[in-house]
Design goal:
Elements lengths: L3 H4 L3 H9 L4 H35 L7 H25 L2 H19 L4 H29 L5 H37 L5 H11 L4 H8 L3 H9 L20 H10 L1 H31 L4 H27 L7 H24 L1 H11 L1 H6 L12 H29 L3 H7 L1 H20 L10
Helix pairs in contact: 3-5, 3-6, 3-7, 3-8, 3-12, 4-6, 4-17, 5-6, 5-7, 5-8, 6-7, 6-17, 7-13, 9-10, 12-13, 12-17, 12-19, 13-15, 14-15, 14-18, 14-19
Amino acid sequence: MKTEKDSFDLTGLERAMDASALSRTHLVVFLLCVILFICNGYCLQALALAVPILAAQWHVPPDAFGLALAAAVAGMGIMSLIAGSLGDRRGRRPFLILAALMLGVGSIGSMMSTGLTSLTVWRLVTGMGLGFALPNSMALIADFVPTRRRVVAMTLLSGAMSIGTIAAGLLAPTLLAAGGWKLLFAAGSFAPIPLALIMYFWLDESPKFLAKKHGNSPALTALLNRMSVVVPEISQAASTIGKSSAPSTTTASMRRYLPVSIAYWVQGAVAGMLMFLLMNWTPVLLLNAGASEAESLRSVAFINGGGFVSGLILSFILDRSAKRVLLVPAGAFAFAAAAYLSAGVVADIAGFSMVALLLGFAVGPAFITIGLASRIYPSEILATAIGASAAISSLGGVVGPLAGGWLVGRAFPIGTSMGLLAAPALLCLVSAVTLHLSSQRFHRPIAPPVR
């Protein structure tokens, strides 16, 4: 016999949270996730900035670091797939604390590396920390933030990773001059380990997860009171342990979204390939094309800054779109293809800094790819969906550094190297249009934003 305990749904809670104003609790959760993502960005970018010095000190060619660069992305992809599912079943909070610890440990290990093998292993550990952080941070923010602001919030969170990479690019010359590549990695451990302790005391669990797991528990009641969220329906609820978060339920729900997911995954994988290729190899590509060392290092800041601005503009458009929302990234990828094709001309006319900024605008669509998941998947499988997307995107992220190493090894002119990237950008365009058509054909409606 079905009881209220078994039949409690999250409609009332979601409606109340969508109608609520942002509180101090919202701000604390968002800021902690932002700081974690800043650490993610710095740790992810550090090796790319250290490659020229490491190559000279270890007497190996720069393209030999392709596997070490790909290791962090591979670790992120593998762990994202696992961590997203774990977060849907066990909660977001514990895995975010673990993510911060792994980032710190991975940075310390990278600093102590004595060769490519040990460096690759520690970069894998760093990437696993990224994998714990990515799906669970995104899902936690999606669970807390009202629908009308969700894509913007998730894009801002993605942009926080860019702040970390920008900081790495701006700090790299000073850190490398002061203490060499070891100090560059050591700096990556200064924030994550204390952050784990702060998160242990200050980070709240997802209210939607608490409602699904424990129903009307004291922890949920206290959290909603601090957020000034009133849910009349929840006073009648008890518990939903094992219902919404069961593996079989999650698997069945994901299977329903498979037609849409395939196009979404292709788009994410190729966008990830482009983004990680440019983030890891643009300094070397520009240096080989005649840029100064300072210009090549600053290119990381230009790429991530341009990507963040572009992604934020796209996210505002997405949050204000109800119909044909999936055509927004399609237009963005069309612009990206044109940007790659024109990069050589821009280098001749306006210089390498403008090339880096143009490339940043071109990677903007990658910033909204994960945020788009909140408009496709329901809350109960959101972390699993984000984890699967991040894992598949990371396959492209693994290919990106390796493909970049191939481009560096061939020593193509800058126009040829960038022009070759137009082909995968066009594939992203096709996948975005396919995603739009699939969502209509298979009746998987895209949720309109709440006003």
